[in-house]
């Protein structure tokens, strides 16, 4: 199967925070890979903008180092790298002052697509947006890309949306969530809405429960003071996991159109029930194996911020009433994995004597590592001796199923930045969607803060606190094993 690469129109992209960690790890390498693939025209202009004093050659040297470190050797071609670096430039800029803005204006063209990537702290969004207009740099067709966090509660999200709305309309604002750029996440929509196989079964009548797991092996060491201000609920559940839940639970949109898709996601968020205190488990990883625990890494011995959270979530609508969604995410766990597991109900009657051999049908959607899907089904165990049942996977790894082209799945940032250039907002969050998510999240956080709940300790390298197991066991269910 040959992957089609459709070039975009020439564009100007300004990356504010262009010398930062995200720019070096994701944005610059991602842009280079799209250039290498032939998707970015050579007459495009990419400008880094930051406080550091640097000229074009200095920025190109920084970009070359980033490509050497974060792009695989099979895609590092000297001639292509040189051609890509020729599209790059740099402007030293004062986000809160006047320095550099006239120089930036002189380098941004008016006759091509303009995109401005705000890879900076949210506190600078308003200052940058205001100056882009004050210096007549941004026009009515310009687009801005903003990174999370989109606030830390409803009030701050509304304030942030208000700041952006002063200078850009909603159609110009691209709130980026890299989880939505993953190939498997988009394939979830294709599997549901391009095939008749699953959609008739995609409801409470046939689905027992859904598990969404995002497990990380890394600790918060080195950024604990920052993480301690957010925690797993704000950092992962309110945005990444909420988006995954919406894509699973949403109704079919009338068309694969940005607003149609986002309208259906918004309906899911608004249908979420309040979460009961007994349906929440929070944890903090403990010290062990010569490594410090969360409290040491957060530099706060009295911290009540969670590095792990598990939730039982219910959706009050006709499709999902009675089918719980179990969400869990955490740091310093056993393995790095992200997956969605849809567990189907048992057949109403078994005709086989080997009833003990029966296992649930489970559709597993793997986001990382090894993106793909598999469906666990029951078959007859091979060999003589009667009808004994066994469970086997119908496996589809994208890399294997699509051959060499499948192994070259673009990074989420590559896809999302190209969508910005095309003007396609389907995989980006709308302002009312962000606010609705916070409207559901805030009472949960306020509840445990009012109760003074402390997170439960769990061993680093484990699957999380024991209480999370009980969250499932009391319902007669169990978590899937966390493994790569």
Automatic annotation (TrEMBL):
Catalysis: reaction(s): D-glucose 6-phosphate + NADP(+) = 6-phospho-D-glucono-1,5-lactone + NADPH + H(+)
What is an example of a GO molecular function annotated in this UniProt entry?
A: NADP binding
Binding sites annotated in the UniProt record for NADP(+): 51, 148
SUPFAM superfamilies listed in its UniProt record = Glyceraldehyde-3-phosphate dehydrogenase-like, C-terminal domain, NAD(P)-binding Rossmann-fold domains
Q: Identify the residues that bind substrate.
A: 178, 182, 216, 235, 331
Which residues are responsible for catalysis? 240
UniProt-listed Enzyme Commission number(s): 1.1.1.49
Which domain of life does this protein belong to? Bacteria
Q: Which GO terms describe its cellular component?
A: cytosol
Q: In which pathway does it act?
A: Carbohydrate degradation; pentose phosphate pathway; D-ribulose 5-phosphate from D-glucose 6-phosphate (oxidative stage): step 1/3
What is an annotated GO biological process for this record, any one?
glucose metabolic process
Q: Does the keyword Oxidoreductase apply?
A: yes
Q: Give the InterPro entries listed for this entry.
A: G6P_DH (IPR001282), G6P_DH_AS (IPR019796), G6P_DH_C (IPR022675), G6P_DH_NAD-bd (IPR022674), NAD(P)-bd_dom_sf (IPR036291)
Zinc as a keyword of this entry, yes or no, is no
Q: Which UniProt keywords apply?
A: Carbohydrate metabolism, Glucose metabolism, NADP, Oxidoreductase
Query: What Gene3D superfamilies does the entry give?
Result: Dihydrodipicolinate Reductase, domain 2, NAD(P)-binding Rossmann-like Domain
Glucose-6-phosphate dehydrogenase C-terminal domain location is 189-480
Please report the stretch or stretches of sequence annotated as the Glucose-6-phosphate dehydrogenase NAD-binding domain: 14-187
Purpose of the protein: Catalyzes the oxidation of glucose 6-phosphate to 6-phosphogluconolactone.
Family membership noted in the UniProt record: Belongs to the glucose-6-phosphate dehydrogenase family.
Q: What is this protein called?
A: Glucose-6-phosphate 1-dehydrogenase
The record's gene field reads zwf
């Amino acid at each position: 199967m040959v992957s089609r690469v459709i070039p975009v129109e020439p564009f100007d992209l300004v990356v504010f925070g262009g010398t930062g960690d995200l720019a070096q790890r994701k944005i610059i390498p991602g842009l280079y890979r799209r250039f290498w693939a032939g998707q970015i025209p050579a007459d495009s202009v990419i400008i880094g903008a930051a406080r550091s004093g640097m000229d074009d050659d200095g920025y190109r040297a920084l970009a070359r180092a980033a490509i050497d470190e974060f792009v695989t050797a099979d895609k590092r071609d000297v001639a292509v790298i040189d051609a890509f670096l020729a599209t790059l430039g740099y402007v030293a800029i004062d986000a809160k002052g006047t320095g550099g803005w006239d120089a930036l204006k002189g380098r941004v063209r008016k006759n091509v697509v303009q995109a401005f990537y705000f890879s900076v702290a949210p506190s600078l969004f308003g200052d940058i947006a205001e100056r882009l207009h004050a210096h007549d740099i941004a026009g009515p067709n310009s687009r801005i890309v903003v990174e999370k966090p989109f606030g830390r509660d409803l009030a701050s999200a509304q304030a942030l949306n208000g700041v952006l709305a002063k200078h850009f309309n909603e159609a110009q604002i691209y709130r980026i969530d890299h989880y939505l750029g993953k190939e498997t996440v988009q394939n979830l929509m294709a599997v549901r809405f391009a095939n008749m196989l699953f959609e008739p079964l995609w409801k409470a009548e046939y689905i027992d429960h859904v598990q969404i797991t995002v497990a990380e092996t890394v600790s918060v060491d080195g950024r604990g003071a920052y993480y301690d201000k957010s925690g797993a609920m704000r950092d992962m559940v309110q945005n990444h996991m909420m988006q995954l839940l919406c894509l699973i639970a949403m109704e079919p949109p009338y068309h694969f159109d940005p607003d149609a898709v986002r309208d259906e996601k918004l309906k899911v968020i608004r249908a979420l029930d309040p979460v009961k205190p007994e349906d929440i488990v929070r944890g903090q990883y403990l010290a062990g194996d010569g490594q410090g625990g969360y409290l040491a890494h957060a530099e706060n011995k009295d911290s009540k911020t969670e590095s792990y959270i598990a939730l039982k979530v219910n959706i009050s609508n006709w499709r999902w009433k009675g089918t719980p969604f179990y969400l869990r995410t955490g740091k310093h766990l056993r393995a790095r994995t992200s997956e969605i597991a849809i567990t189907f109900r048992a057949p109403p009657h078994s005709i086989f004597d080997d009833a003990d051999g029966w296992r649930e049908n489970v559709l597993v959607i793997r986001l990382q590592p090894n993106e793909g899907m598999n469906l666990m089904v029951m078959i007859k165990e091979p060999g003589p001796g009667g009808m004994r049942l066994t469970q086997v996977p119908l496996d589809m790894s994208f890399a294997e199923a699509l051959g060499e082209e499948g192994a070259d799945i673009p990074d989420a940032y590559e896809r999302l930045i190209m969508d910005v250039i095309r003007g396609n907002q389907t995989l980006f969050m709308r302002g009312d969607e962000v606010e609705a998510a916070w409207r559901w999240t805030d009472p949960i956080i306020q509840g445990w803060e009012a109760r003074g709940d402390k997170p439960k300790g769990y061993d680093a390298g484990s699957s999380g606190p024991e209480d999370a197991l009980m969250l499932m066991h009391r319902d007669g269910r169990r978590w899937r094993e966390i493994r790569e």
